[in-house]
Protein backbone atom coordinates (compact mmCIF):
# COMPACT_ATOMS: atom_id res chain seq x y z
CA UNK A 1 0.00 0.00 0.00
CA UNK A 2 1.33 3.43 -0.90
CA UNK A 3 2.68 4.63 2.47
CA UNK A 4 2.19 8.32 1.70
CA UNK A 5 -1.48 7.91 0.90
CA UNK A 6 -2.29 5.04 3.30
CA UNK A 7 -1.25 6.81 6.50
CA UNK A 8 -4.79 8.16 6.95
CA UNK A 9 -6.05 4.59 7.50
CA UNK A 10 -4.11 4.27 10.76
CA UNK A 11 -5.59 5.55 14.06
CA UNK A 12 -4.77 9.23 14.37
CA UNK A 13 -4.10 9.41 10.64
CA UNK A 14 -7.08 11.68 9.97
CA UNK A 15 -4.70 14.62 10.48
CA UNK A 16 -3.60 13.96 6.88
CA UNK A 17 -7.12 14.40 5.51
CA UNK A 18 -7.13 18.22 4.93
CA UNK A 19 -3.95 18.00 2.85
CA UNK A 20 -5.31 15.11 0.82
CA UNK A 21 -8.63 16.80 0.13
CA UNK A 22 -6.87 20.02 -0.80
CA UNK A 23 -5.06 18.42 -3.75
CA UNK A 24 -6.25 18.55 -7.35
CA UNK A 25 -7.67 15.23 -8.55
CA UNK A 26 -8.41 13.77 -11.95
CA UNK A 27 -11.25 11.68 -10.59
CA UNK A 28 -13.41 12.05 -7.49
CA UNK A 29 -15.39 8.86 -6.85
CA UNK A 30 -18.34 9.25 -4.50
CA UNK A 31 -19.39 5.97 -2.88
CA UNK A 32 -17.35 3.34 -1.06
CA UNK A 33 -19.15 0.16 -2.09
CA UNK A 34 -17.85 -2.40 -4.56
CA UNK A 35 -18.70 -0.25 -7.60
CA UNK A 36 -16.83 2.80 -6.32
CA UNK A 37 -13.90 0.69 -5.13
CA UNK A 38 -13.65 -1.01 -8.52
CA UNK A 39 -13.64 2.32 -10.33
CA UNK A 40 -10.93 3.64 -7.99
CA UNK A 41 -8.72 0.63 -8.67
CA UNK A 42 -9.09 0.61 -12.44
CA UNK A 43 -8.52 4.37 -12.63
CA UNK A 44 -5.46 4.38 -10.36
CA UNK A 45 -3.72 1.50 -12.13
CA UNK A 46 -4.07 3.49 -15.38
CA UNK A 47 -2.37 6.59 -14.05
CA UNK A 48 -5.29 8.77 -12.93
CA UNK A 49 -5.04 10.70 -9.68
CA UNK A 50 -8.11 9.25 -8.02
CA UNK A 51 -9.83 9.96 -4.71
CA UNK A 52 -12.80 8.10 -3.22
CA UNK A 53 -15.03 9.45 -0.44
CA UNK A 54 -17.74 7.55 1.41
CA UNK A 55 -20.30 9.17 3.72
CA UNK A 56 -20.39 6.18 6.11
CA UNK A 57 -17.96 3.28 6.23
CA UNK A 58 -16.53 1.37 3.28
CA UNK A 59 -19.10 -1.25 2.16
CA UNK A 60 -21.61 0.18 4.66
CA UNK A 61 -24.50 -0.05 2.22
CA UNK A 62 -25.37 -2.82 -0.19
CA UNK A 63 -21.84 -4.20 -0.47
CA UNK A 64 -21.71 -5.67 3.04
CA UNK A 65 -25.31 -6.92 2.95
CA UNK A 66 -25.39 -8.87 -0.29
CA UNK A 67 -26.15 -12.57 -0.59
CA UNK A 68 -22.34 -13.19 -0.58
CA UNK A 69 -22.63 -15.03 -3.91
CA UNK A 70 -20.37 -14.48 -6.90
CA UNK A 71 -22.55 -16.03 -9.54
CA UNK A 72 -23.22 -16.03 -13.24
CA UNK A 73 -26.89 -15.23 -12.87
CA UNK A 74 -28.40 -18.54 -13.91
CA UNK A 75 -31.91 -17.22 -13.34
CA UNK A 76 -31.29 -14.32 -15.74
CA UNK A 77 -31.27 -16.83 -18.60
CA UNK A 78 -34.97 -17.40 -18.00
CA UNK A 79 -35.49 -13.66 -18.53
CA UNK A 80 -33.50 -13.70 -21.77
CA UNK A 81 -30.59 -11.68 -20.34
CA UNK A 82 -27.91 -13.64 -22.17
CA UNK A 83 -25.36 -10.81 -22.36
CA UNK A 84 -25.56 -10.14 -18.61
CA UNK A 85 -25.23 -13.85 -17.86
CA UNK A 86 -22.24 -14.23 -20.18
CA UNK A 87 -20.50 -11.23 -18.61
CA UNK A 88 -21.27 -12.51 -15.11
CA UNK A 89 -19.91 -15.99 -15.85
CA UNK A 90 -16.72 -14.46 -17.26
CA UNK A 91 -16.23 -12.21 -14.21
CA UNK A 92 -17.03 -15.01 -11.77
CA UNK A 93 -14.33 -17.16 -13.34
CA UNK A 94 -11.86 -14.23 -13.27
CA UNK A 95 -12.48 -13.72 -9.55
CA UNK A 96 -12.04 -17.42 -8.84
CA UNK A 97 -8.72 -17.27 -10.69
CA UNK A 98 -7.43 -13.95 -9.30
CA UNK A 99 -8.77 -14.01 -5.73
CA UNK A 100 -8.32 -17.53 -4.32
CA UNK A 101 -8.97 -17.62 -0.60
CA UNK A 102 -11.43 -14.74 -0.91
CA UNK A 103 -13.66 -15.94 -3.75
CA UNK A 104 -14.25 -19.66 -3.46
CA UNK A 105 -16.15 -22.28 -5.50
CA UNK A 106 -19.58 -23.19 -4.16
CA UNK A 107 -21.62 -26.17 -5.36
CA UNK A 108 -25.39 -25.81 -5.51
CA UNK A 109 -27.96 -28.60 -5.26
CA UNK A 110 -31.52 -28.22 -6.62
CA UNK A 111 -34.08 -30.92 -5.89
CA UNK A 112 -36.24 -32.14 -8.77
CA UNK A 113 -39.64 -32.58 -7.16
CA UNK A 114 -42.88 -33.72 -8.76
CA UNK A 115 -44.70 -30.66 -10.08
CA UNK A 116 -41.91 -28.22 -9.21
CA UNK A 117 -40.93 -25.54 -11.70
CA UNK A 118 -38.64 -25.08 -13.47
CA UNK A 119 -38.77 -28.70 -14.58
CA UNK A 120 -35.76 -30.90 -15.13
CA UNK A 121 -35.57 -30.29 -18.88
CA UNK A 122 -35.72 -26.48 -18.65
CA UNK A 123 -33.17 -26.36 -15.82
CA UNK A 124 -30.72 -28.62 -17.61
CA UNK A 125 -31.06 -26.59 -20.80
CA UNK A 126 -30.16 -23.46 -18.83
CA UNK A 127 -27.16 -25.22 -17.32
CA UNK A 128 -26.01 -26.36 -20.76
CA UNK A 129 -25.97 -22.72 -21.87
CA UNK A 130 -24.26 -21.77 -18.60
CA UNK A 131 -21.55 -24.37 -19.19
CA UNK A 132 -21.02 -23.25 -22.76
CA UNK A 133 -20.51 -19.65 -21.59
CA UNK A 134 -17.97 -20.87 -19.02
CA UNK A 135 -16.22 -23.18 -21.49
CA UNK A 136 -16.78 -26.28 -19.39
CA UNK A 137 -18.91 -29.41 -19.19
CA UNK A 138 -20.08 -31.32 -16.16
CA UNK A 139 -22.63 -33.89 -15.07
CA UNK A 140 -25.60 -32.12 -13.54
CA UNK A 141 -28.41 -34.61 -12.96
CA UNK A 142 -28.40 -37.29 -10.26
CA UNK A 143 -30.89 -39.93 -9.21
CA UNK A 144 -32.89 -39.49 -6.00
CA UNK A 145 -30.68 -41.87 -3.95
CA UNK A 146 -27.50 -40.16 -5.22
CA UNK A 147 -28.96 -36.72 -4.55
CA UNK A 148 -30.03 -37.61 -1.01
CA UNK A 149 -26.41 -38.50 -0.26
CA UNK A 150 -25.36 -35.03 -1.44
CA UNK A 151 -28.12 -33.25 0.49
CA UNK A 152 -29.24 -35.71 3.18
CA UNK A 153 -31.52 -33.40 5.18
CA UNK A 154 -33.78 -32.16 2.41
CA UNK A 155 -37.41 -33.20 1.97
CA UNK A 156 -37.60 -36.64 0.35
CA UNK A 157 -41.33 -36.65 -0.42
CA UNK A 158 -41.88 -36.26 -4.16
CA UNK A 159 -38.14 -36.18 -4.91
CA UNK A 160 -37.39 -37.58 -8.39
CA UNK A 161 -33.71 -36.69 -8.46
CA UNK A 162 -31.59 -33.58 -8.28
CA UNK A 163 -29.46 -31.11 -10.18
CA UNK A 164 -26.02 -29.86 -9.12
CA UNK A 165 -24.01 -26.97 -10.53
CA UNK A 166 -21.10 -24.72 -9.56
CA UNK A 167 -20.98 -21.02 -8.73
CA UNK A 168 -18.93 -19.11 -6.13
CA UNK A 169 -19.14 -17.18 -2.86
CA UNK A 170 -17.17 -14.48 -1.08
CA UNK A 171 -16.98 -12.23 1.96
CA UNK A 172 -18.42 -9.16 0.24
CA UNK A 173 -17.13 -6.52 2.68
CA UNK A 174 -13.63 -8.02 2.65
CA UNK A 175 -13.74 -8.01 -1.16
CA UNK A 176 -14.35 -4.24 -1.06
CA UNK A 177 -11.45 -3.77 1.38
CA UNK A 178 -9.12 -5.86 -0.80
CA UNK A 179 -10.02 -3.79 -3.88
CA UNK A 180 -9.39 -0.57 -1.94
CA UNK A 181 -6.07 -1.90 -0.67
CA UNK A 182 -5.04 -2.70 -4.23
CA UNK A 183 -6.14 0.76 -5.41
CA UNK A 184 -4.06 2.46 -2.72
CA UNK A 185 -1.05 0.41 -3.78
CA UNK A 186 -1.40 2.22 -7.12
CA UNK A 187 -1.48 5.64 -5.42
CA UNK A 188 -5.23 6.17 -4.96
CA UNK A 189 -6.76 7.60 -1.78
CA UNK A 190 -9.92 6.30 -0.07
CA UNK A 191 -11.60 8.10 2.84
CA UNK A 192 -14.54 6.86 4.87
CA UNK A 193 -16.86 9.06 6.91
CA UNK A 194 -16.49 11.90 4.40
CA UNK A 195 -19.85 12.97 3.02
CA UNK A 196 -20.44 15.05 -0.11
CA UNK A 197 -22.72 17.92 0.86
CA UNK A 198 -22.92 19.81 -2.41
CA UNK A 199 -21.36 19.64 -5.85
CA UNK A 200 -19.03 22.45 -6.90
CA UNK A 201 -19.81 23.98 -10.29
CA UNK A 202 -18.18 26.57 -12.47
CA UNK A 203 -19.90 29.02 -14.81
CA UNK A 204 -23.03 28.64 -12.77
CA UNK A 205 -25.77 31.24 -12.80
CA UNK A 206 -27.68 29.26 -10.20
CA UNK A 207 -26.72 26.65 -7.58
CA UNK A 208 -27.69 23.70 -9.79
CA UNK A 209 -26.28 24.99 -13.09
CA UNK A 210 -22.81 24.90 -14.60
CA UNK A 211 -20.26 22.16 -15.04
CA UNK A 212 -19.38 20.02 -12.01
CA UNK A 213 -15.78 20.58 -10.94
CA UNK A 214 -15.67 18.89 -7.57
CA UNK A 215 -17.58 18.72 -4.33
CA UNK A 216 -17.81 20.16 -0.85
CA UNK A 217 -17.01 17.32 1.54
CA UNK A 218 -17.55 17.22 5.28
CA UNK A 219 -15.45 14.92 7.45
CA UNK A 220 -17.66 13.32 10.11
CA UNK A 221 -14.65 12.67 12.36
CA UNK A 222 -13.39 16.26 12.56
CA UNK A 223 -16.57 18.07 11.50
CA UNK A 224 -14.54 20.20 9.07
CA UNK A 225 -15.74 20.99 5.53
CA UNK A 226 -13.39 20.90 2.53
CA UNK A 227 -13.63 21.87 -1.12
CA UNK A 228 -12.35 19.05 -3.34
CA UNK A 229 -11.49 19.92 -6.95
CA UNK A 230 -11.61 17.24 -9.62
CA UNK A 231 -11.72 17.14 -13.40
CA UNK A 232 -14.52 14.57 -13.25
CA UNK A 233 -16.85 13.43 -10.48
CA UNK A 234 -18.26 9.89 -10.56
CA UNK A 235 -21.44 9.21 -8.62
CA UNK A 236 -21.17 5.55 -7.59
CA UNK A 237 -23.56 5.70 -4.65
CA UNK A 238 -25.85 2.90 -5.87
CA UNK A 239 -29.33 3.11 -4.39
CA UNK A 240 -28.45 6.61 -3.12
CA UNK A 241 -27.59 7.95 -6.61
CA UNK A 242 -30.62 10.22 -6.94
CA UNK A 243 -29.63 12.13 -3.79
CA UNK A 244 -26.41 13.38 -5.41
CA UNK A 245 -27.28 14.16 -9.01
CA UNK A 246 -30.72 15.55 -8.18
CA UNK A 247 -32.05 15.31 -11.74
CA UNK A 248 -32.44 11.61 -12.50
CA UNK A 249 -32.11 10.38 -16.06
CA UNK A 250 -33.22 6.94 -14.89
CA UNK A 251 -35.62 5.99 -12.14
CA UNK A 252 -34.26 3.83 -9.35
CA UNK A 253 -36.33 1.15 -7.68
CA UNK A 254 -34.69 0.29 -4.35
CA UNK A 255 -35.32 -3.36 -3.57
CA UNK A 256 -34.64 -4.91 -0.17
CA UNK A 257 -33.05 -8.32 0.13
CA UNK A 258 -33.14 -9.79 3.64
CA UNK A 259 -31.35 -12.82 5.07
CA UNK A 260 -31.26 -15.10 8.09
CA UNK A 261 -28.04 -16.39 9.65
CA UNK A 262 -28.18 -19.72 11.50
CA UNK A 263 -25.53 -21.80 13.27
CA UNK A 264 -23.99 -24.43 11.02
CA UNK A 265 -24.85 -27.16 13.55
CA UNK A 266 -28.58 -26.32 13.29
CA UNK A 267 -28.56 -26.06 9.50
CA UNK A 268 -25.67 -28.30 8.45
CA UNK A 269 -24.97 -28.00 4.73
CA UNK A 270 -22.37 -29.85 2.70
CA UNK A 271 -23.25 -27.61 -0.24
CA UNK A 272 -25.67 -24.83 -1.06
CA UNK A 273 -29.32 -25.80 -1.43
CA UNK A 274 -31.28 -23.90 -4.06
CA UNK A 275 -35.06 -24.10 -4.08
CA UNK A 276 -38.17 -22.42 -5.40
CA UNK A 277 -40.27 -20.93 -2.60
CA UNK A 278 -43.44 -22.97 -2.00
CA UNK A 279 -45.62 -19.83 -1.91
CA UNK A 280 -44.56 -17.86 -4.99
CA UNK A 281 -41.94 -19.91 -6.84
CA UNK A 282 -39.13 -17.38 -6.25
CA UNK A 283 -35.58 -18.75 -5.94
CA UNK A 284 -34.34 -19.07 -2.35
CA UNK A 285 -31.06 -20.58 -1.15
CA UNK A 286 -29.29 -21.79 1.96
CA UNK A 287 -25.52 -22.16 1.94
CA UNK A 288 -22.51 -22.54 4.25
CA UNK A 289 -20.52 -19.34 4.79
CA UNK A 290 -17.73 -18.46 7.20
CA UNK A 291 -18.76 -21.00 9.82
CA UNK A 292 -22.51 -20.27 9.68
CA UNK A 293 -25.39 -20.93 7.29
CA UNK A 294 -27.07 -18.09 5.38
CA UNK A 295 -30.65 -18.24 4.13
CA UNK A 296 -31.98 -15.74 1.61
CA UNK A 297 -33.13 -13.78 -0.06
CA UNK A 298 -36.27 -11.71 -0.26
CA UNK A 299 -36.87 -9.20 -3.04
CA UNK A 300 -39.33 -6.50 -1.99
CA UNK A 301 -39.75 -2.79 -2.62
CA UNK A 302 -37.95 -0.71 0.00
CA UNK A 303 -39.83 2.47 0.74
CA UNK A 304 -38.02 3.48 3.93
CA UNK A 305 -35.54 6.35 4.25
CA UNK A 306 -32.29 5.23 2.64
CA UNK A 307 -30.29 7.16 5.24
CA UNK A 308 -31.53 4.67 7.83
CA UNK A 309 -30.16 1.14 7.89
CA UNK A 310 -32.44 -1.46 6.38
CA UNK A 311 -33.73 -4.30 8.56
CA UNK A 312 -35.70 -7.48 7.98
CA UNK A 313 -39.46 -7.36 8.57
CA UNK A 314 -41.61 -10.00 10.25
CA UNK A 315 -43.23 -10.76 6.91
CA UNK A 316 -39.81 -11.45 5.35
CA UNK A 317 -38.81 -13.55 8.35
CA UNK A 318 -41.94 -15.67 7.99
CA UNK A 319 -41.29 -16.02 4.26
CA UNK A 320 -37.75 -17.34 4.72
CA UNK A 321 -38.74 -19.61 7.61
CA UNK A 322 -41.51 -21.10 5.42
CA UNK A 323 -38.89 -21.96 2.80
CA UNK A 324 -36.74 -23.68 5.46
CA UNK A 325 -39.67 -25.66 6.84
CA UNK A 326 -40.60 -26.84 3.34
CA UNK A 327 -37.08 -27.88 2.32
CA UNK A 328 -35.76 -29.17 5.68
CA UNK A 329 -38.86 -30.54 7.45
CA UNK A 330 -36.96 -32.91 9.78
CA UNK A 331 -34.72 -30.24 11.31
CA UNK A 332 -37.49 -28.50 13.26
CA UNK A 333 -36.00 -25.05 12.69
CA UNK A 334 -37.53 -22.04 14.41
CA UNK A 335 -36.80 -18.37 15.00
CA UNK A 336 -34.95 -19.27 18.20
CA UNK A 337 -32.25 -20.79 15.97
CA UNK A 338 -31.49 -17.52 14.19
CA UNK A 339 -28.15 -15.97 15.18
CA UNK A 340 -28.56 -12.75 13.23
CA UNK A 341 -30.32 -11.13 10.30
CA UNK A 342 -29.27 -8.57 7.75
CA UNK A 343 -30.92 -6.61 4.96
CA UNK A 344 -29.48 -4.70 2.02
CA UNK A 345 -30.98 -2.39 -0.58
CA UNK A 346 -30.24 -3.15 -4.22
CA UNK A 347 -30.01 -0.28 -6.74
CA UNK A 348 -32.28 -1.66 -9.47
CA UNK A 349 -33.51 0.34 -12.46
CA UNK A 350 -37.31 0.53 -12.54
CA UNK A 351 -38.78 -0.78 -15.78
CA UNK A 352 -42.30 -1.00 -14.39
CA UNK A 353 -42.50 -4.74 -13.75
CA UNK A 354 -45.06 -5.77 -11.14
CA UNK A 355 -42.76 -8.45 -9.72
CA UNK A 356 -39.58 -6.88 -8.27
CA UNK A 357 -37.65 -10.11 -8.90
CA UNK A 358 -38.10 -9.69 -12.64
CA UNK A 359 -36.40 -6.30 -12.83
CA UNK A 360 -33.11 -6.40 -14.76
CA UNK A 361 -29.79 -6.27 -12.89
CA UNK A 362 -27.90 -4.43 -15.62
CA UNK A 363 -25.98 -1.29 -14.74
CA UNK A 364 -26.70 2.07 -16.37
CA UNK A 365 -24.63 5.24 -16.83
CA UNK A 366 -25.47 8.80 -17.69
CA UNK A 367 -23.53 12.09 -17.81
CA UNK A 368 -24.66 15.53 -16.72
CA UNK A 369 -22.22 18.43 -17.04
CA UNK A 370 -19.14 16.83 -15.53
CA UNK A 371 -21.00 14.38 -13.29
CA UNK A 372 -20.94 10.74 -14.40
CA UNK A 373 -23.49 8.56 -12.59
CA UNK A 374 -23.43 4.76 -12.52
CA UNK A 375 -25.93 2.55 -10.74
CA UNK A 376 -27.46 -0.90 -10.95
CA UNK A 377 -25.32 -3.94 -11.65
CA UNK A 378 -24.13 -6.82 -9.49
CA UNK A 379 -21.34 -7.60 -7.07
CA UNK A 380 -19.89 -10.12 -9.51
CA UNK A 381 -19.46 -7.65 -12.37
CA UNK A 382 -17.78 -4.76 -10.55
CA UNK A 383 -14.69 -4.84 -12.78
CA UNK A 384 -16.74 -4.74 -15.99
CA UNK A 385 -18.77 -1.84 -14.59
CA UNK A 386 -15.60 0.06 -13.66
CA UNK A 387 -14.14 -0.31 -17.15
CA UNK A 388 -17.41 0.87 -18.69
CA UNK A 389 -17.28 3.94 -16.45
CA UNK A 390 -13.71 4.71 -17.58
CA UNK A 391 -14.71 4.38 -21.23
CA UNK A 392 -17.34 7.05 -20.64
CA UNK A 393 -14.91 9.12 -18.55
CA UNK A 394 -12.34 9.22 -21.37
CA UNK A 395 -14.31 11.85 -23.27
CA UNK A 396 -14.21 14.11 -20.19
CA UNK A 397 -10.45 13.65 -19.71
CA UNK A 398 -9.03 14.54 -23.14
CA UNK A 399 -5.37 14.44 -22.06
CA UNK A 400 -5.72 10.91 -20.67
CA UNK A 401 -5.02 7.88 -22.81
CA UNK A 402 -5.06 4.34 -21.46
CA UNK A 403 -5.60 0.76 -22.47
CA UNK A 404 -8.97 -0.23 -21.02
CA UNK A 405 -8.55 -3.93 -21.65
CA UNK A 406 -9.11 -6.27 -18.73
CA UNK A 407 -6.18 -6.95 -16.42
CA UNK A 408 -5.89 -9.37 -13.51
CA UNK A 409 -8.20 -8.17 -10.76
CA UNK A 410 -5.51 -8.45 -8.09
CA UNK A 411 -1.75 -8.63 -8.21
CA UNK A 412 -0.46 -12.10 -7.41
CA UNK A 413 0.47 -12.41 -3.73
CA UNK A 414 2.71 -15.21 -2.44
CA UNK A 415 1.47 -17.33 0.44
CA UNK A 416 3.12 -16.46 3.77
CA UNK A 417 6.23 -18.56 4.37
CA UNK A 418 5.46 -21.75 6.32
CA UNK A 419 8.42 -21.11 8.62
CA UNK A 420 6.86 -17.86 9.78
CA UNK A 421 3.69 -19.35 11.27
CA UNK A 422 1.89 -22.54 12.23
CA UNK A 423 -1.28 -21.90 10.28
CA UNK A 424 -2.82 -24.70 8.20
CA UNK A 425 -2.39 -24.11 4.44
CA UNK A 426 -6.11 -23.37 3.98
CA UNK A 427 -6.01 -20.65 6.66
CA UNK A 428 -2.88 -19.12 5.12
CA UNK A 429 -4.60 -19.08 1.72
CA UNK A 430 -7.64 -17.44 3.29
CA UNK A 431 -5.52 -14.65 4.75
CA UNK A 432 -3.68 -14.21 1.47
CA UNK A 433 -6.99 -13.84 -0.36
CA UNK A 434 -8.24 -11.19 2.04
CA UNK A 435 -5.04 -9.21 2.60
CA UNK A 436 -2.85 -9.90 -0.43
CA UNK A 437 0.79 -9.08 0.21
CA UNK A 438 -0.13 -7.75 3.68
CA UNK A 439 -0.93 -11.27 4.98
CA UNK A 440 2.66 -11.88 6.14
CA UNK A 441 2.67 -8.59 8.07
CA UNK A 442 -0.68 -9.46 9.66
CA UNK A 443 0.73 -12.75 10.92
CA UNK A 444 3.87 -11.02 12.19
CA UNK A 445 1.88 -8.51 14.28
CA UNK A 446 -0.10 -11.26 16.04
CA UNK A 447 0.52 -11.63 19.75
CA UNK A 448 0.34 -14.84 21.76
CA UNK A 449 -2.82 -16.82 21.06
CA UNK A 450 -4.02 -14.47 18.31
CA UNK A 451 -3.47 -16.93 15.46
CA UNK A 452 -6.25 -19.05 16.93
CA UNK A 453 -9.72 -19.07 15.37
CA UNK A 454 -12.54 -17.29 17.16
CA UNK A 455 -15.00 -20.10 18.02
CA UNK A 456 -18.01 -20.27 15.71
CA UNK A 457 -16.22 -18.41 12.91
CA UNK A 458 -13.26 -18.75 10.56
CA UNK A 459 -11.71 -15.46 11.78
CA UNK A 460 -8.41 -15.17 13.65
CA UNK A 461 -8.05 -12.86 16.64
CA UNK A 462 -5.05 -11.35 14.82
CA UNK A 463 -7.33 -10.05 12.07
CA UNK A 464 -8.96 -7.75 14.62
CA UNK A 465 -5.64 -6.30 15.70
CA UNK A 466 -4.64 -5.72 12.08
CA UNK A 467 -7.95 -4.05 11.26
CA UNK A 468 -7.75 -1.75 14.27
CA UNK A 469 -4.20 -0.77 13.39
CA UNK A 470 -4.37 -0.49 9.60
CA UNK A 471 -7.93 -0.46 8.19
CA UNK A 472 -9.54 2.91 8.92
CA UNK A 473 -11.81 1.71 11.73
CA UNK A 474 -13.73 4.74 13.02
CA UNK A 475 -16.58 2.96 14.82
CA UNK A 476 -16.85 -0.36 16.65
CA UNK A 477 -19.49 -1.40 14.12
CA UNK A 478 -16.85 -1.03 11.37
CA UNK A 479 -14.72 -3.62 13.15
CA UNK A 480 -17.52 -6.05 14.02
CA UNK A 481 -19.70 -5.89 10.91
CA UNK A 482 -17.32 -5.16 8.02
CA UNK A 483 -13.59 -5.60 8.86
CA UNK A 484 -14.69 -8.83 10.51
CA UNK A 485 -18.16 -10.38 10.28
CA UNK A 486 -18.43 -11.35 13.94
CA UNK A 487 -21.62 -9.35 14.34
CA UNK A 488 -23.33 -11.75 11.92
CA UNK A 489 -21.63 -14.96 13.00
CA UNK A 490 -22.04 -14.82 16.77
CA UNK A 491 -25.10 -14.56 18.98
CA UNK A 492 -26.11 -11.05 20.11
CA UNK A 493 -23.60 -9.48 17.77
CA UNK A 494 -20.66 -11.17 19.49
CA UNK A 495 -21.32 -9.54 22.88
CA UNK A 496 -19.63 -12.43 24.66
CA UNK A 497 -16.27 -11.84 22.94
CA UNK A 498 -16.23 -8.05 23.27
CA UNK A 499 -14.06 -8.11 26.43
CA UNK A 500 -11.24 -9.90 24.60
CA UNK A 501 -11.70 -7.72 21.51
CA UNK A 502 -11.39 -4.71 23.78
CA UNK A 503 -8.14 -6.07 25.21
CA UNK A 504 -6.76 -6.50 21.68
CA UNK A 505 -8.06 -3.40 19.95
CA UNK A 506 -8.63 -0.56 22.42
CA UNK A 507 -5.01 0.58 22.52
CA UNK A 508 -4.63 0.08 18.76
CA UNK A 509 -7.62 2.36 18.15
CA UNK A 510 -6.41 4.91 20.72
CA UNK A 511 -9.84 5.00 22.40
CA UNK A 512 -10.11 5.88 26.07
CA UNK A 513 -12.47 4.09 28.49
CA UNK A 514 -15.34 6.49 27.87
CA UNK A 515 -15.02 6.20 24.08
CA UNK A 516 -14.97 2.41 24.17
CA UNK A 517 -18.03 2.25 26.44
CA UNK A 518 -19.95 4.59 24.15
CA UNK A 519 -18.96 2.64 21.04
CA UNK A 520 -19.94 -0.67 22.61
CA UNK A 521 -23.35 0.63 23.70
CA UNK A 522 -24.04 2.09 20.24
CA UNK A 523 -22.93 -1.09 18.50
CA UNK A 524 -25.07 -3.42 20.61
CA UNK A 525 -28.08 -1.14 20.12
CA UNK A 526 -27.49 -1.28 16.36
CA UNK A 527 -27.37 -5.08 16.47
CA UNK A 528 -30.71 -5.22 18.30
CA UNK A 529 -32.34 -2.75 15.92
CA UNK A 530 -31.03 -3.89 12.53
CA UNK A 531 -29.34 -7.29 12.77
CA UNK A 532 -31.84 -9.19 14.93
CA UNK A 533 -35.28 -10.66 14.41
CA UNK A 534 -38.12 -8.10 14.55
CA UNK A 535 -39.47 -9.59 17.77
CA UNK A 536 -36.13 -8.90 19.49
CA UNK A 537 -36.29 -5.15 18.77
CA UNK A 538 -39.03 -4.34 21.25
Protein described:
This protein is of the alpha+beta class. The protein has helices at residues 3-6, 17-21, 34-44, 74-78, 82-98, 120-134, 144-150, 172-185, 241-245, 314-327, 382-393, 425-435, 439-444, 461-470, 476-483, 486-489, 498-509, 513-530; strands spanning 24-30, 50-53, 69-70, 103-113, 141-143, 159-170, 189-191, 194-202, 211-219, 225-235, 252-263, 272-276, 283-289, 292-296, 300-301, 340-349, 363-368, 371-376. The strands form 2 sheets. Strands 3, 4, 5, 6, 11, 12, 13, 14, 15 and 16 form a 10-stranded mixed beta sheet that branches. Strands 1, 2, 7, 8, 9, 10, 17 and 18 form an 8-stranded mixed beta sheet that branches. A hairpin with an 8-residue loop joins strand 8 and strand 9. Helix 3 packs across helix 11 (382-393). The chain is globular. The two termini are 45 Å apart. The model has no long low-confidence stretch (mean pLDDT 90).
Which secondary structure elements does this structure contain, and how are they paired or packed?
Layout: H1 3-6, H2 17-21, E1 24-30, H3 34-44, E2 50-53, E3 69-70, H4 74-78, H5 82-98, E4 103-113, H6 120-134, E5 141-143, H7 144-150, E6 159-170, H8 172-185, E7 189-191, E8 194-202, E9 211-219, E10 225-235, H9 241-245, E11 252-263, E12 272-276, E13 283-289, E14 292-296, E15 300-301, H10 314-327, E16 340-349, E17 363-368, E18 371-376, H11 382-393, H12 425-435, H13 439-444, H14 461-470, H15 476-483, H16 486-489, H17 498-509, H18 513-530
Parallel strand pairs: 1-2, 1-10, 2-7, 4-12, 10-18
Antiparallel strand pairs: 3-6, 4-6, 5-6, 8-9, 9-10, 11-14, 11-15, 11-16, 12-13, 13-14, 17-18
Helix pairs in contact: 3-8, 3-11, 14-17
Amino acid sequence: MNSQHAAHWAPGGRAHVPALLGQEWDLLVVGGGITGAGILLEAARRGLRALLVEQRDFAWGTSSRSSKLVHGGLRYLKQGQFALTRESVHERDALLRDAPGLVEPQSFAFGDYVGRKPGRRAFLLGLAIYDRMAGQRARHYFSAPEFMQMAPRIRSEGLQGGICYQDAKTDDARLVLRVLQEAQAHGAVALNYCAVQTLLREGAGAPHQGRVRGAQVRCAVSGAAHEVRARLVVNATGAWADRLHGRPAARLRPLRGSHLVLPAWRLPLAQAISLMHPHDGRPVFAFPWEGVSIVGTTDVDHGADLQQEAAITQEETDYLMAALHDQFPTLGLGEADVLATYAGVRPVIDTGKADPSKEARDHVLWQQEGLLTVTGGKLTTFRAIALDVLRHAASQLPAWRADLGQRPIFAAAPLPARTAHKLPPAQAARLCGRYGDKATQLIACAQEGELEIIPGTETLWAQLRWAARHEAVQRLEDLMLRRSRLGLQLAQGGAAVLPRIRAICQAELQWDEQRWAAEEAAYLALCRANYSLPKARA
